[in-house]
From TrEMBL:
The keyword Zinc does not apply. InterPro entries: D-isomer_2_OHA_DH_cat_dom, D-isomer_DH_CS, D-isomer_DH_NAD-bd, NAD(P)-bd_dom_sf. This is Glycerate dehydrogenase. It comes from Lentibacillus halophilus. Keywords: NAD, Oxidoreductase. Residues 104-278 form the D-isomer specific 2-hydroxyacid dehydrogenase NAD-binding domain. Residues 6-309 form the D-isomer specific 2-hydroxyacid dehydrogenase catalytic domain. Belongs to the D-isomer specific 2-hydroxyacid dehydrogenase family.
Amino acid sequence: MLVMTIDEFSKDQIQYLQDICSPMPVHLEPDIKNNSTLLNHVEVLITFGFDLTKETLEQMPSLKWVQVFQTGVEHIPIEELEERGILLTNVKGIYSTPMSEYVMSMILYYTRQLRRFIQEQQQHIWNREELVDEAGGKTIAIFGAGTIGTAIAEKARMFGMHVLGVNTSGQLRPHFDEMVTLDNKEKALKEGDFIVLLLPETKKTFHCIGRNELRLMKESAYLINIGRGGLVDTNALVNELNQKTIQGAALDVFEEDPLPKDHPLWDMNNVFITPHLSAKTIHFYDRCIEKFKMNFSRYQKGETMIDKVDLDKGY
């Protein structure tokens, strides 16, 4: 029994999943909490993970594998999965194209002053006196040098940017000009014109960007967070943006998701907000299903799964 707790698939995508899993029946259930009889038979679960609780897991004695259709798993009761030996996989390999394009679009948005031109068009202003900047020659500091970070680094170098990376080991990766460890992040913060956050949220990375880190950044620098909202101390960020100790920020993730309507970030002219969509394009579900298809074949054969989450590390 395969339970889908996602209700955004097209009819063609649902049929494709059924074909992949046949003869295992595919059941779509938007709210698995309301179907205890079904839960008792679940062997494979596809979910975003937000509805997966310790109590829900207790109702699934036959569960062997959880496929999460996102990268982050910090909201999933990992200890219970580990205790029962339940396999957990994510789809971390599908985000390189959309998220790298997102980052480059934000860099161009700020360097080419697109906000200003949009406002001047609305006001019918023909202004050729104020010249724009260029991405070439700027330094991009990427916190997280995995597949997404590498894709961003590759595109940034095509634009003539200097690429500085931050990872656990400090080992140089393809398309990066230099690399430092997270413990030596001061160098990246001081030199980066664009600071890009891609890290998972762990005990070590929670609020790794706070008041002290923001004040190490250049006054002309921009912060781009497409990793996890908890990487940034939001109150500190609001304060530094108000004081203009940094130039601005592009934020796709927040400590409170969705961002409350009365939050001060909404009204800041030096902030660009997107609703946690940097990774999600019209191709998102097709890529997720293809990733699941590869893993389902391996699952049936008892082979090693791809994108298996390390339950000890939490990513």
